[in-house]
Fold this sequence. Notes:
This protein has 217 residues and is of the alpha+beta class. The chain has one domain. Helices cover 23% and strands 24% of the residues. The chain contains five helices and six strands. It has helices at 4-11, 14-17, 41-52, 123-135, 191-203, and strands at 67-77, 83-90, 95-102, 113-121, 167-175, 178-185. A six-stranded antiparallel β-sheet has the order 4-3-2-1-5-6, with helices on both faces. It is globular. The two termini are 16 Å apart.
Amino acid sequence: MKAALAIALMLLAPGIAWAQDAPVPKTHYLPPDFAPNKDGFLEGWFGKHLASMGEPVLWAPHALDGYRSRFRMLVLPSFSQPYVIRIDQRADGRALIHYTLTNGRGGYGPGVAIRRKTRALDADRFARVTDALAAARFTARLPDNGGGQEFADAPRDEGMAICMDGTQLVFELLDAAGDHVVTRHECTLDVQTRALVAAMLNAADIVPDGKRGDPMP
């Protein structure tokens, strides 16, 4: 939990400023009530990458048809190739995991998909992700922590973190309760969110590599 300056400085980082180069996709990936996107900057950044990956819009009216839940983690390293991991739990309870990597740069413009994988996700690793979501109180988290808070009912953290470049993460959960989007810079992740990141990387068989820009659990 960090002060607002952390997010402000992170968004002004040199690489991230260039994320606006590609055309804004016609499809909007962030829900209209996602407060941090009030000026459209985050849609232009996150949406371009999700569009280049061919990702579905999870807040769309029928996005949950045929599924119990859908959870996505978008990983945007400033100077390295971005990727997305999505877990779809089908109506029959079984889960599929999808992974897409592009040749873009997370803080610059999006590229094109250069690797895609989809496979069944075993029950143990799916449970690890759902347990991590519950432990993180994911749906209670504020959309961003730029105001120094992770939760609306938590005291503000007046500490200051200067997050220049690095990796931005975007988490989105869709289930029967609705759609919830959270974005965090890796330098502001708390223990519970790091555990969630670790569970997602493990589910996708990704061994974190700091040089590549993976968020380090």
